[in-house]
């Protein structure tokens, strides 16, 4: 359970019912999940500070106010932000140029709080209220169509970010991690089931001796895993083709796809292949279930 506490005049933070030092440090972090501290998210950075492996001045989104909060908790002096981790700045918002977006989904896969919606080969959009300004969607974009636009004038750090926004970002990140864990578990379970099925079918294909003399029968498509796979792919392609035709009729078909260069297409294919290997579900499905 998380409750809101006033730790100093004008400073409210959300604290959890847990008691470890890492928990209390995490409660003070802005939760943009930007990785600028050098850790994959706010929680691992909190754990590193608690373990004495990281300094408490590595979080640019928290700025000097964030350093002061951590210093107060840890009983240490307020020190300057480490410039190697970045600078305190007005909070930016990611904005996608929809005329250039090719719908490759790479930004969605990079966003730590699921703030981007869209589907493969269709334009993508950032949900402003959910964007933490973490910058993580910018580098993967193969057509460089994401701009980070400052939206808080001169306000920086915690002056540009509220505790409610931090709480919401943390919750969305936690949900994303839980979903990814479920998807990985499901992928492992599917792989185990396939392996078990292959194992179960093996004795039948290496039939008993007396069967070796019987005339060889062609395997039925229903029992041939490769044939099944091809049929599933064929059906999926057919569904995608029909969907594309429907969207085109409504004037809402995929945009910019004819402008994709061979390099970009290779990146898209590699991303799709990665998702297939990991057994991750469709990105559009994912966001529909979240909103
Ligand atoms: S907001 Fe960014 S820099 Fe700060 S702790 Fe979280 S991930 Fe690290
Ligand atoms: S849209 Fe981009 S900048 Fe905004 S939270 Fe997602 S990855 Fe970060
Ligand atoms: S082209 Fe850029 S903005 Fe569009 S989906 Fe790909 S990464 Fe996202």
From TrEMBL:
Residue ranges with Low complexity bias: 210-222
Residue ranges, annotated region (Disordered): 166-291
Pfam families: Fer4_21, FeS
Keywords: 4Fe-4S, Cell inner membrane, Cell membrane, Electron transport, Iron, Iron-sulfur, Membrane, Metal-binding, Repeat, Translocase, Transport
A GO term for molecular function: metal ion binding
Coiled coil ranges: none
4Fe-4S domain segment(s): 16-76
Compositionally biased region (Basic and acidic residues): 198-209
InterPro entries: 4Fe-4S_dom, 4Fe4S_Fe-S-bd, 4Fe4S_Fe_S_CS, Elect_transpt_cplx_RnfB/RsxB, RnfB_subfamily
SUPFAM superfamilies referenced in this protein's UniProt entry, alphabetically: 4Fe-4S ferredoxins
Gene3D superfamilies reported in the protein's UniProt record: 3.30.70.20, Electron transport complex subunit B, putative Fe-S cluster
The organism's place on the tree of life at top rank: Bacteria
Domain (4Fe-4S ferredoxin-type) ranges: 92-121, 122-151
Keyword hit for ATP-binding: no
Protein name: Electron transport complex, RnfABCDGE type, B subunit
Lineage: Bacteria, Pseudomonadati, Pseudomonadota, Betaproteobacteria, Burkholderiales
